[in-house]
Amino acid sequence: MSAGHGVKGLAELGLKTLPQQYIQPPHERFDSSDDDEEQPNNDTIPVIDMSNWDDPKVAEAVCDAARKWGFFQVVNHGVPIHVLQDVKHATRQFFGFPAEEKRKYSKERSVTNNVRFGTSFTPEAEKALEWKDYLSLFFVSDDEAASLWPPVCRNQALEYVKSSEPVVKKLLAILMKGLNVKEIDESKESMLMGSKRINLNYYPKCPNPELTVGVGRDSDVSTLTILLQDEIGGLYVRNTETMKWIHVPPVSGSLVINVGDALQIMSNGNYKSVEHRVVANGSSNRISVPIFVNPRPSDVIGPLPEVLESGEKQIYKNVLYKDYVMHFFSKAHDGKATVEFAKA
Predict the structure, then answer these.
(1) What is the pLDDT of residues 140-156, one digit of tens each?
(2) With the CA atoms of 43, 218, 274 and 66 taken in that order, what torsion angle do they form, in degrees rounded to the nearest 10?
(3) Among positive and negative, which fits the CA dihedral 306, 307, 311, 317?
């Protein structure tokens, strides 16, 4: 199997058993059939209706969710539903291409590091591989996207990134206010959302799904992640109080928002970047499309002065964002270990 076929190529061989290199050690496996479907109401990720952004109750719900869960879903968020449908359709089209077409964008062949088709997470660092293919697109400018992103998904991915920007700005304004940051000036804005990456993820149907994972336990290195998931489901989030895994059910038209490590560091730990994982599925192909809203690589991030004004002890030191990200990508998914890198 060459890089261009990816996990999808393996899945389409009609394998009855999972290839050895994808079998996760027992402690990393996750059997979703063990999951308690009857989650009590207080043990579900909040779904927040954003139709009235100025309502103080909305701001309160967003900040509470970021403190307790690090995850929430938003509905009536203002991103047109057709934009969401289009990018999902384009994702399926890209992964439906023949291997040689996708291989043009592989690490070995892509003309730029900003466009990358790949499989699993960091194959060099992982003991067992994850059951997932992806196309990762780092946004530099409209012009670069127009010339280098794959034509089949270029416009749809760009449209989704652009349409989600007002949501991101409103959410960050609310979250900053919750930290006593009254105004987001230009330098703060660039630190919060100076760079963006969009990933198109494809999780093929899997033989022996209980032996592998779609994505292992990890948290994101972003400020915020905006995730579009399809109707299949499979994303689980760690409840940090009970340590149980909680399913994030697909809600039609919603976007899943989660706090990333950068925001946890900037908020001095007030907002939580929480462990999550994706289970493999034995009966369906699943796609998801996250946008990672990040500081710029050259930004130094650390707890915001406004947060420390009240006399809070500084938990994190200042780190160059690029170093933090390099540390994250140099190793396999390992839950929350990355943020230790920034501990004061």
Answers:
(1) 999 999 999 999 999 99
(2) -110
(3) negative
